[in-house]
Amino acid sequence: MNKKTALIFDMDGVLFDTERVYLESCQKAASEMGLGDVRELCLSCIGITAEMTRRRFLEYFGDEEILRSFWEEAGRITRETLSREVPLKPGAREILVYLRERDIPTALASSTRTEIVRRELSQTGLIDYFSKIVGGDAVANSKPHPEIFLKAAELLGKDPGECIIVEDSVNGIKAAEAAGITAFLVPDLIAPKEDVVRKAYGVAESLFEVMELLSRNFGI
Q1: 51 to each of 38, 55, 66, 78, how far by Cα in Å?
Q2: Does the annotation count 188 as an active-site position?
């Protein structure tokens, strides 16, 4: 196994407790509009790009105008919530400080648009911890395709085998496996199934535990 010399993080559900915000916003908007329970639909979109999410919702609603109205309302609720605070996951700031102290370069690879990624990282004071940022609009293929992780590794100047990915989603873990990159799974809203657990190097309850695993298993 190659020596691990860099980390790549997903954002929503890993560093930020925002998947919960998005889910609650969509559920509230759907309820207000009489569109039924969209929880499972929302959960199926975790880890994929905004465009792929739009396609899934359009297939579900079957009407562009309904989708547009729903998207506007869900977006309004989300922006209102996140304008007050972007909630961090336990250990988010601590693991980034930990890696900086050890001179381990870090990249962020998120399916979220780059503009939003940079805004939220700046809002939380985390942006300077990342030497490279790859948003979902910077790649042609969404997770579980490995493109975003391979691009992040390339920008870091690292071979995929030198990197470790920290992910929360099924699609993210599949993308890491396809990229040939070691991955830690830190589950968020969806409890992982056994086949997903097997694809990950390890499963951690929090980013604090990821730090322990990095130290114990990789000497980082």
Answers
A1: 17, 6, 16, 18
A2: no
